[in-house]
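ESCALATION

Customer reports they have been waiting on this structure for their group meeting. Please prioritize. Original submission:
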Amino acid sequence: MIHLQEQVDLSSFNTFGIQCSARYFVSIQRLDQLKALLELDLLKKCSRLVLGGGSNLLFTKDFFDGLVIKNEIEGIEKVRETADHCWLKVGAGEAWHPFVLYCVENDLGGIENLSLIPGSVGAAPMQNIGAYGVEVKDVIESVDVFDFQTSNSKQLNNRDCAFGYRESYFKNEGKDRFFITHVTFKLSKRNHVMKTEYGAIKDYLTKMNINELSLRAVSDAVIAIRKSKLPDPVQIGNAGSFFKNPTITLQQYVQLKQQHTHMPMYTVDDKHVKVPAGWLIEQCGWKGKKIGHVGVHAQQALVIVNYGGAKGEEIVTLAQSIQRSVKQNYGIELQMEVNMI
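Update from on-call: job pushed to the front of the queue and completed.
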């Protein structure tokens, strides 16, 4: 049984807090509800938007003239176990951070560096979320989906998902085709490989006099660092990192380094490096700048915020201005990480 609603306010369903209403809205807790939804024929008559935690999208208009499908499929199930690893099948509607804490509490390693990332489990493979040297693709075994084209369910393995930097099959060739129902993760039970060399994790652990490394210690460090740099969406509207860190050729970086001697980078391979987008934006003078209802966060230039009452178009205009500024000063094109609706 499904409960179809009309003219639903979506402001509480997106972390930017943008005012937008949907023509139709339905919540899905079980697979059979999706199949029942197909019988209403709505999916053929209007556009659709599958909504998770709403933490990586921006509504650019006041009205979505289509069907919003809210993914609320929950559950955490142990499906396989060996001496070294545990496989968990998780409902796509589960909130991401509580799931990370569940793994930490149960001494299951692999996603502790991804603590405090907003959003849902189902959005994790779509965005291939990552932070502090870890990407979720490294622990995803498979993704269960409902295919809107065939009206059938199927399972995609890690390779099928075509993961890239903040990219996946679901954002490209498979865009708008699938409803993710579950994600299966392969997590370590012992001999955890904990990454502390990226960002400020190691400095935080030293500052807190933590000598014995643990999943909890790494998770706590990440949480503390993120809280110190990133605004809480509950307090001020934002979608976290708005831009991707651009990858450029090593040759281009060497040329830029001659003019900008303090320009940081991270090695990708022997021919490419990644430059922090936040650094580029800050160097262009955007950090802490406010224009009307929107602005760039004072602590993290990678975050665009809604100070209250902003329209989606205002955020887009600011983002485009930032892109032009970075392009003009560094010859680098910033790509938006946030999905425009």
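Sent to customer with the following note: The chain has three domains: 5-71, 76-188, 237-340.
Escalation resolved.
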